[in-house]
Amino acid sequence: DSGVTQTPKHLITATGQRVTLRCSPRSGDLSVYWYQQSLDQGLQFLIQYYNGEERAKGNILERFSAQQFPDLHSELNLSSLELGDSALYFCASSGLLSGGPGDEQFFGPGTRLTVL
Amino acid sequence: AQSVTQLDSQVPVFEEAPVELRCNYSSSVSVYLFWYVQYPNQGLQLLLKYLSGSTLVESINGFEAEFNKSQTSFHLRKPSVHISDTAEYFCAVSPQGGSEKLVFGKGTKLTVNP
User: Fold this and answer.
1) Which chain B residues have a beta carbon less than 8 Å from that of A98?
2) Is A99 helix (H, G, I), strand (E, B) or coil?
3) N or C: which end of chain A has fewer CB within 10 A?
4) Which residues pair with B9 in a beta bridge?
5) Which of B111, B82, B113 is nearest to B9 (CA)?
6) Residues in chain A within 8 Å Cβ distance of B107
7) Which residues of A touch B46 (CB under 8 A)?
């Protein structure tokens, strides 16, 4: 158990809908990362938050947004969903000790999103 | 920008045989290097990492990887695999001096057969 929790585990929805994925980082971790894992694109970095502020952005679509709250949990919002958004979405956290580069990222179990 | 190439998408081996999973990277800046493992229906777990110092790094379960700067490689090896090593292995890099984001390869599925 990595200490990172993600809800829900599975999500099935229809095209055009909006969903929210939730992540609770390890206790004390300040950084939260979101990754998307799909068969064709592999594992791709979406976005990073550090202590409530956006720190880095990757291949995140404009239809997607995220935020990190004062209690450090994070939410990833996906809107106007398309079939191609079906994927496993991972949250990871780091920064318990130093918060610097090279810190281990601890991954949650993921949320499997299926868009029909 | 960074990119990671894992040359083999699938590697089948027999139990107790040696294995090497290959990883090459490309980057305009220095990077940190990682190997993560993903067991079926689970999240990723860090296997080992190279930040600096000795180019040979080891994990607690017998895996090792060697950083080769001239060949921009970070191959993962184990001299004798077990059935329980069956999993998908991901090589990743993180740029030094910037965001801590990880750039992953496509993964190598290691299947250990009895």
Assistant:
1) none
2) coil
3) N
4) none
5) B111
6) 42-43
7) 104-106
Share of chain A above pLDDT 70, in %: 94
CB contact under 8 A, B98 and A90: no
- The number of C-beta contacts closer than 8 angstroms across A and B is 63
| Residue A84 three-state SS | helix
Name the pLDDT band for A99 (thresholds 50, 70, 90): low
Nearest by CB: A108 against B43, B100, B103: B43
Dist. CA B71–CA A43, nearest whole Å: 24
The band of A90, judged by pLDDT with boundaries at 50, 70 and 90, is very high
Q: Which chain A residues are within 8 Å of B36, Cβ to Cβ?
A: 107
- Chain B interface, Cβ < 8 Å to A: 32, 36, 42-46, 49, 51, 90, 94-107
Q: Of B6, B2, B31, which Cα lies nearest the Cα of B108?
A: B6
CA–CA gap between residue B93 and residue B32 (Å, rounded): 6
* Count of beta carbons in the 10 Å neighbourhood of residue A73: 16
